[in-house]
Design a protein that fits this description.
By secondary structure, the protein is mainly beta. It is built from one helix and 25 strands.
């Protein structure tokens, strides 16, 4: 009998059994490799004597119907922060094969999920790893979850798999990073030893009654043919990391102090014509764990004052909205090569500019410059 014919016969038998049982549950699929035997008996009479005759024994081996599902175990994205290590997404693999299987696991970052998951992948994670839930608690335990493949997953059994990654400091307003898990069915039968990847039996061959054939019956994971196809012994599911905090509580305060007035030496300086005034800009990032990048401060020179050449400093210490320690001196043309900061004076527009490349969370830095009262 051909394999197609055998499948039809088994399906018909199962349907009849279900109707005869009044809707009771159908028995679990027969385990692959099971030998099913049958022998017929004929009875007849010759001259009033009853004679029995037996047929040859017919037997065949139950083939392996390979099927499994790979799905994301998350209803939403995994919320992460910039420079967040060991961020986790979860997946569930269910073995519905009529036999125990190993599964090979591969994590990757992919844009295949665009159109499946909402949004668009626009930043990269690093150090992608995959681990199997060792104690079935559904939580990633770094000290316990060490296995990188699924070992001996019994029929009708599910297991959780984690993708673990690191988030760096991505540029350009990062938002989503799509990752996917690929599961490939492999041979079972050896505890603590990964099996070889299964290969489907050529479906054009006639059914081999004494041999366990392998038939892939898995579906297309996403239904769109993106990264997976039906009956290929593979499954793929997608999840996303989302940088939930994309804005920070950034505040800027400005203070002024009279440095000197050219008249009073022993008493506090006054705001007299010819006095030098120092302006202090203190910028504070009030959001924990989330840095602000490319912070640019701009300040117009006020009327009735003249900018003091070479007076810009950036990256100083600001406390209580006051510059308590000036930063790196800056050339007015922006050509300073000392320190990570830059500053410049735009004479045409009468504007001072200061750039702070990175301002960590819960951190303050300052910029200062001086003018002369006309």
């Amino acid at each position: 009998m051909s394999k197609t014919g055998a499948r039809r016969l088994l399906m018909t038998g199962a349907a009849m059994a279900a109707m005869a049982g009044g809707g009771t549950a159908v028995a679990a699929p027969t385990t692959a490799g099971t030998i099913i035997t049958n022998q017929a008996t004929a009875t007849y009479t010759v001259n009033n004597n009853t004679v029995n005759a037996q047929s040859d024994v017919a037997q065949f081996v139950v083939d392996r119907k390979v099927a499994f599902t790979t799905v994301s175990a998350q209803a939403t994205t995994t919320k992460v922060a910039v420079n967040d290590p060991n961020v986790v997404t979860s997946f569930t693999i269910t073995n519905i094969t009529n036999g125990t299987q190993d599964f090979l696991l591969t994590p990757d970052q992919t844009t295949l999920s665009t159109g499946i998951l909402p949004g668009s992948d626009n930043f990269d994670v690093s150090n992608l790893r995959v681990f199997v839930d060792s104690n079935a608690n559904g939580q990633y335990d770094a000290d316990l979850d060490r296995a990188t493949y699924i070992d001996e997953l019994a029929p009708d059994t599910s297991i959780t798999v984690f993708i673990v990654a690191d988030v760096g400091s991505p540029p350009n307003n990062p938002y989503l990073a799509f990752v996917s898990l690929q599961a490939v069915v492999a041979a079972g039968g050896g505890v603590n030893a990964v099996g070889e990847r299964l290969v489907s039996t050529d479906l054009d061959l006639l059914n081999r009654e004494g041999v366990e054939d392998i038939v892939f019956a898995d579906n297309d994971s996403d239904g769109l043919g993106l990264g997976d196809l039906p009956r290929n012994g593979q499954g793929r599911a997608s999840a996303a990391y989302e940088i939930a905090t994309r804005a920070v509580a950034l505040t800027v305060t400005k203070t002024a102090r009279i440095v000197s007035d050219g008249v009073n030496l022993l008493t506090p300086a006054r705001a007299l014509p010819g006095a030098i005034v120092e302006y202090c800009l203190v910028v504070n990032n009030g959001t924990a764990l989330t840095p602000a990048t490319s912070v640019v401060l701009k300040d117009k020179i006020p009327d009735n004052t003249t900018y003091v050449p070479g007076s810009i400093t950036v990256g100083g210490l600001g406390t209580g909205n006051v510059c308590v320690l000036n930063g790196f001196p800056q050339n007015d043309d922006g050509s300073n090569t000392v320190g990570p900061y830059t500053g410049a004076f735009d004479a045409a527009n009468g504007e001072v500019r200061a750039t702070i490349p990175l301002l960590l969370g819960l951190t303050s830095l300052s910029a200062s410059f001086r003018v002369t009262i006309n």
